[in-house]
């Protein structure tokens, strides 16, 4: 090792140190947590509508929480997955905006990056920082026990959104706000029937296995087809893990091995967009030769309906903010909160996609 | 170095080499201390007993895995399977808890140890690169996990009455058992590294395997033991996590191997093997956990900053290691 390498190494070290310094300097700048992530126009007035509520009501008294004024409360939001997914980005943004709207003192936001241990740490962290009310999008239905226990010990209510936990209602958590994924599957079958005129050989692109979203969207679709649409024949189903590239690869394989496929049902928009590319690669016209129906309501997919490549998208509304804070307000006003608050999801099809494009996330 | 008359310059070189050695061993500790002190003064809720206890508890699961990885890396190897084995250990423990506390503890330790043993045998006897062998182990363990959990759809719950829950949820003197377990495990690990022939053989293999072999050291046996222990500890970390969460969560451990490797390298263990400390790895794990905690304290900061900052610190440490190694050699 000769001495002439020293200066270069030093420079590298100094440079890295500077980067680190800048990052740490950025850290010591608290107090901007209430700032909304963006100002994209229409998401504020597109909150969710409650379709039905099931389960026993839970009041402030029964839960054993202390009455607080939301305007002086610190609210913590634990997001489960990275905001790179359109659904998550829209969800986080909606919570931030609704928190601002509700005028809470401070909103703490964490993201577990899909790691359960990190979500547990995140929640305990926010409790330590004095969170009075928690909104949690669980990474997993099981295993949040230590975090929920810690919240219970401090008398902090936990509202879960978009994924339900298996713990005890009104003891470990306040309520669950979310979509009915089974119903989404049934409506996808209705839309498929509409798009194909009742006669089709359908391939299904499944979401990740071992996931209640996948199971419900699949069984809802199949049950409805069996009950109502004998002309829809399910010829293949394969998992593509909710991912666009996998959706494309799996759709390509399916189209090759079953050339008579005339329709594709994808459990989410990303896989459907992958399928669009696969259908084009097979020399066919997506939306015409092969009908495509999916679930989510992302902007890209709704745009694809406008462009004629996808036939219909059942919405899964991510904008939990207004409903979450409305639920918190009711809870502190002494009203009973039901265990399951199921929201209404819209549908995008060829008749309304263009005019409703602004509502897609 | 063989000069009988020492020039004054050599004295300075030797002094610098000593500083370099200390910096390499304690660098992470210095960074950790600085971050902790800064965070304590900046954020009211950071220095509270509750928060510090949380950090220690949450670091303990990875720390157990990192202990095994430390010996693997010091021997010049790598173990990519630990993330999957960690998850598998948790699922086996939760399933076993339905059949008694001993089943919950022994099943994951035996199965994960067996995976480590097979990997060690293939690496040592077959002379195959650890990278590939343990990559196969990563896939194998994850596949096995999905098989026994109905493709991840079944999450086994630890029965509410099971004493197994106490293991990670109970505490002694206000500090959770996992923290005590880590303290004991690392003390033993430190003794094994510095006071046993096994420890010196690990370092010798990592330094120069051929030389260690020529010296008649039990290279094969040491390697097999090292990978077996890594498997056992990864499984044990998983079973602690299962006790902590009361369930065998199937989505755990993805990418955990990289986090553990990062912690070990941060702690001053050379990726090329041959040098390192056990305590350093503990500091590395704590540092990663503290960074995560501090980012949450800031609140407004996107949590992806955690990866950015951890990555930057890792780069600085590796760069420093390289430089310090050249200083020591002069």
From TrEMBL, chain A:
Alphabetically ordered keywords of this record: Signal
Primary localization class, coarse: other
Region Disordered, residue ranges: 32-54
Domain Periplasmic binding protein: from-to ranges: 76-330
Cellular component, GO, one term: cell envelope
Secretion signal, residue range per the UniProt entry: 1-25
Subcellular location: Cell envelope
CDD domains: PBP1_galactofuranose_YtfQ-like
GO molecular function ontology, one term from the record: carbohydrate binding
Domain of life where this protein originates: Bacteria
Family matches, as InterPro entries: Peripla_BP_I, SBP_2_dom
Family per record: Belongs to the bacterial solute-binding protein 2 family.
Protein name in the entry: Monosaccharide ABC transporter substrate-binding protein (CUT2 family)
Source organism per UniProt: Prauserella shujinwangii
Taxonomic lineage: Bacteria, Bacillati, Actinomycetota, Actinomycetes, Pseudonocardiales
UniProtKB/TrEMBL annotation, chain B:
Ranges annotated as spanning the membrane: 22-43, 55-73, 80-97, 103-124, 131-149, 169-193, 224-244, 264-291, 303-324
Gene Ontology, cellular component aspect: plasma membrane
Subcellular location: Cell membrane
Domain of life of the source: Bacteria
Protein name (database record): Monosaccharide ABC transporter membrane protein (CUT2 family)
Signal peptide: none
GO MF terms held by the record: transmembrane transporter activity
Keywords: Cell membrane, Membrane, Transmembrane, Transmembrane helix
Chief location bin: membrane
Organism, as annotated: Prauserella shujinwangii
């Amino acid at each position: 090792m000769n001495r002439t390498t020293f200066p270069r190494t030093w420079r590298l070290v100094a440079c890295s140190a500077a980067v680190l310094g800048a990052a740490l300097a950025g850290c010591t700048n608290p107090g901007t947590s209430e700032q909304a992530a963006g100002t994209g126009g229409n998401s504020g007035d597109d909150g969710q509508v409650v379709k039905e509520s099931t389960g026993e009501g839970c009041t402030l008294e029964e839960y054993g929480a202390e009455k607080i004024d939301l305007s002086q409360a610190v609210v913590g939001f634990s997001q489960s997955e990275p905001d790179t997914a359109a659904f998550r980005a829209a969800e986080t943004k909606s919570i931030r905006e609704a928190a601002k709207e509700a005028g809470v003192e401070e909103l703490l936001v964490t993201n577990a990056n899909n790691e359960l241990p990190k979500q547990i740490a995140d929640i305990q962290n926010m409790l330590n920082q004095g969170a009075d009310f928690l909104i949690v999008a669980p990474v997993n239905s099981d295993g949040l026990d230590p975090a929920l226990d810690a919240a219970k010990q401090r008398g902090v209510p936990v509202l879960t959104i978009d994924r339900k936990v298996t713990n005890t209602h009104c003891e470990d958590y306040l309520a669950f706000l979310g979509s009915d994924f089974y119903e989404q599957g049934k409506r996808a079958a209705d839309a498929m029937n509409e798009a194909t005129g009742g006669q089709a050989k359908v391939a299904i692109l499944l979401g990740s296995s071992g996931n209640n979203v996948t199971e419900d969207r699949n069984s809802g679709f199949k049950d409805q087809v069996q009950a109502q649409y004998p002309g829809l024949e399910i010829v293949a189903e394969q998992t593509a893990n909710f991912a666009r590239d996998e959706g494309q690869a799996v759709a390509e394989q399916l189209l090759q091995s079953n050339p008579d496929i005339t329709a594709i049902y994808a459990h989410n928009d990303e896989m459907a967009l992958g399928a669009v590319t696969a259908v084009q690669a097979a020399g066919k016209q997506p939306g015409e030769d092969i009908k495509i129906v999916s679930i989510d309501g992302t902007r890209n997919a709704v745009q694809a309906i406008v462009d004629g490549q996808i036939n219909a998208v059942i919405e899964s509304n991510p904008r939990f903010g207004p409903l979450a804070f409305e639920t918190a307000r009711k809870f502190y006003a002494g009203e009973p909160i039901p265990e399951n608050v199921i929201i209404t999801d819209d549908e995008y099809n060829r008749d309304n996609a263009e005019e409703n494009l602004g509502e897609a996330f | 170095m063989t000069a009988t008359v020492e020039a004054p310059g050599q004295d300075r070189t030797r002094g610098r080499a000593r500083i370099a050695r200390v910096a390499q061993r304690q660098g992470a500790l210095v960074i950790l201390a600085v971050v902790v002190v800064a965070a304590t003064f900046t954020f009211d809720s950071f220095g509270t007993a509750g928060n510090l206890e949380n950090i220690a508890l949450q670091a303990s699961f990875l720390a157990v895995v990192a202990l095994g990885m430390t010996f693997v890396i010091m021997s010049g190897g790598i173990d990519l399977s630990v993330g999957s084995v960690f998850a598998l250990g948790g699922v086996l423990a939760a399933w076993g808890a339905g059949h008694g506390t001993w089943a919950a503890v022994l099943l994951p330790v035996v199965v994960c140890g067996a995976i480590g043993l097979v990997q060690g045998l293939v690496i040592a006897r077959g002379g195959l690169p650890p990278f590939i062998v343990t990559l196969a182990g990563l896939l194998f363990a994850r596949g096995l996990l999905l098989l026994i959990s109905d493709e991840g759809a079944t999450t086994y719950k630890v029965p509410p009455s099971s004493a197994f829950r106490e293991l990670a949820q109970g505490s002694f003197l206000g500090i959770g058992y996992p923290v005590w377990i880590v303290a004991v495990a690392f003390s033993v690990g430190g003794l094994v590294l510095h006071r046993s022939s096994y420890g010196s053989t690990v370092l010798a293999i990592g330094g120069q395997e051929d030389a260690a072999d020529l010296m008649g050291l039990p290279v094969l046996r040491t390697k097999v033991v090292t990978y077996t222990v890594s498997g056992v500890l990864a499984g044990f970390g998983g079973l602690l996590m299962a006790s902590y969460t009361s369930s065998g969560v199937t989505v755990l451990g993805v990418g955990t191997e990289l986090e553990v490797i990062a912690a070990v390298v941060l702690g001053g263990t050379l990726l090329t093997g041959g040098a390192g400390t056990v305590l350093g790895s503990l500091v590395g794990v704590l540092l990663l956990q503290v960074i995560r905690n501090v980012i949450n304290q800031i609140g407004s900061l996107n949590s992806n900053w955690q990866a950015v900052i951890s990555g930057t610190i890792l780069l600085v440490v590796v760069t420093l290691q390289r430089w310090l190694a050249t200083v020591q050699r002069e």
